[in-house]
Specification:
Layout lengths: L1 E3 L2 E3 L6 E4 L25 E3 L8 E4 L2 E6 L8 E2 L4 E2 L24 E6 L5 E2 L3 E6 L5 H14 L10 E5 L12 H14 L4 E8 L7 H5 L10 E5 H4 L2 H19 L5 E4 L4 E6 L10 H14 L3 E4 L9 H5 L5 H20 L10 H5 L5 H9 L7 E5 L9 E5 L5 H11 L3 E6 L12 E5 L2 H6 L6 E2 L2 H4 L4 H16 L5 H5 L16
Parallel strand pairs: 11-12, 11-13, 13-14, 16-17, 16-20, 17-19, 18-19, 20-21, 21-22
Antiparallel strand pairs: 1-2, 2-3, 3-4, 4-7, 5-6, 6-8, 9-10, 9-15
Helix pairs in contact: 1-5, 2-11, 6-14
Length: 507
């Protein structure tokens, strides 16, 4: 990267620079012969060379679209003169797969070692519902537990979390949508951040409790109970029985103690939302550096949001450990192309209005910045939404770009901590996994300081290196995994962000 007079060039081959502050009309920039004819907002692009209509616009050394008309030197480059075009790339399977050197200094965090061998960063009790029809009763049980002071005798438990959603019935019992919801609920039931689970259904839904429980032992610690409202005899009786079952589960969960656990047991779900022109410059590459550090310690990081790596997937396939893994990622991209075609959507209808106000113009540009979260580690494997992660290292999990839905899948897959970068601002949390919020720019960090955990804008404003910020984030990840509260946890977020991916017809 190189910068001058309030702008930055991210790659020597780029034909645009990025404004690091609002640059008013009439400004004469170094290297640009004409004064700016219009204000260029912070995070937006300025042509550093004349770009003829139909020619590629280059940022990060990669194509982000084509000029829809002639663009003059020094002109603001955005939706009025930049659009999507041909973006076919060479997937080059495994051609840039380089193993990162393992770090031998054995780092640990204070975590909860579970009976199945996994480790948790929190110790919640979960009230998990099979269907929307049980949602209110699950919340009534959680409220009754709080009012009764049930947890007063169990100091090692972080709280009771009702996990409710809008699906579970009015759906096929044998299609892709059913399988996706089944994986999601099963993943939460077994999640290491839950010390115990109460599973509540209505009784007549498609997603039957008996099918979820099956003949297998869902939890190795036996801290799972289940019931249906219809079998219990209605709301009041279900609440009463629920409190009894929660007490029994709490007695098991309270035995858990934080003990030293290798950081290789941390699994981080990586997300970005409300992105801006700084996302790919500051917070995302800092998270990528921290991701590489965690992987070098034997840990796991998950990149997702398939619709928001579209057009940049070649950067991941080139890092795949094998052609088979690269093919799995391409197969998910092809699935998305078909999914959008079937449902009248377009993968290139991104970025959102907020993204555009922040300076992002095309999905290619947004995707290139999003992929920066993945660092440089090899792509170990590719998973379906909510599929259990069974390998260490950097992996990809298929999901929509809708943040609560994507995080839901990552948590179901085993993420015991979330790191979320944002440029426009985001207020959310994802119980049972703590969420660290990274601000991409200092102005937003100051404005939303009560919601942001770490400012990455100082990479631009104060010259902090991406490597130093990545190391700072890595240490924060260890502290949060050990019990330090994030801003979203302190504010009480996490009770409304469980959003399973609803695929297929609602009947």
């Amino acid at each position: 990267m190189s910068g001058t007079q309030g702008t930055i060039r991210l790659h020597p081959n780029d034909n645009v620079v990025v404004a690091l502050e609002d640059i008013p009309a009439g400004t004469q920039l170094v290297g640009i012969t004409d004064v700016l004819q219009q204000l260029v907002p912070q995070g937006h692009k300025i042509a550093s060379n004349p770009i003829a209509e139909g020619r590629n616009v280059i940022r990060y050394g990669q194509i982000i679209g084509q000029a829809t008309r002639d663009i003059a030197l020094g002109e603001h480059v955005h939706v009025h003169n930049l659009g999507m075009g041909e973006h076919t790339q060479d997937y080059g399977f495994s051609s840039q797969c380089e193993t990162l050197a393992a770090l031998t200094n054995a780092r640990t965090f204070q975590g909860y070692r579970r009976a199945d061998g996994r480790a948790g960063t929190r110790n919640y009790l979960g009230i998990l519902t099979s269907v929307n029809c049980a949602g209110s009763v699950a919340r009534f049980i959680a409220e009754a537990a709080e009012k009764s002071g049930l947890l007063d005798a169990f100091p090692n438990i972080d709280g009771v979390v009702p996990i409710v959603h809008s699906s579970g019935c009015g759906m096929s019992g044998k299609d892709e949508g059913y399988a996706t919801l089944f994986r999601t609920l099963s993943g939460y039931a077994q999640h290491p951040n839950f010390g115990g689970i109460l599973l509540v259904g209505l009784g007549c839904e498609v997603m039957q409790i008996d099918d979820l429980v099956g003949r297998r032992q869902i939890r190795a610690d036996s801290a799972l109970r289940y019931m249906t409202i219809q079998a219990e005899g209605g709301t009041r009786k279900t609440i009463e029985r629920g409190l009894e079952e929660l007490r029994g589960i709490a007695e098991i969960a309270n035995r858990a103690q934080r003990t030293p656990v290798p950081v290789s047991e941390i699994t981080v779900g990586m997300q970005c939302g409300g992105s801006d022109g700084y996302s790919g410059i500051t917070a995302n590459p800092a998270l990528g550096y921290a991701s590489d550090l965690l992987v070098r310690h034997g840990g796991t990081t998950i990149l997702s949001e398939t619709s928001e790596i579209y057009g940049a997937e070649h950067l991941l396939t080139r890092r795949a450990v094998s052609a088979e893994v690269g093919d799995k990622l391409v197969a998910r991209v092809r699935w998305w192309e078909d999914y959008c075609a079937r449902n009248g959507g377009e993968l290139d209808n991104n970025p959102s209005p907020g993204n555009k106000r922040g300076g992002l113009t095309t999905i290619l540009e947004k995707s290139l910045g999003a992929v920066a979260k993945s660092g440089s580690a090899p792509l170990t494997d590719v998973y379906l939404f909510a599929e259990k992660i069974d390998k260490h290292g950097f992996v990809f999990m298929d999901s929509p770009g809708f943040d609560p839905c994507s995080v839901t899948g990552q948590v179901a897959s085993g993420a015991n901590l979330i790191v979320f970068t944002t440029g426009r601002g985001s207020v959310s949390g994802y119980k049972p996994s703590p969420c660290i919020k990274l601000a991409t720019n200092s102005e937003m960090y100051r404005r939303l300081s009560e919601d942001m955990d770490l400012n990455c804008g100082d990479i631009v404003t104060d010259g902090v290196s991406i490597e130093d910020k990545g190391r700072e984030l890595f240490e924060l990840i260890i502290r949060v995994a050990s019990g330090e509260q994030t801003k979203s946890e302190a504010l009480g977020f996490g009770g409304a962000e469980f959003v399973p991916w609803q695929i297929g017809a609602v009947m």
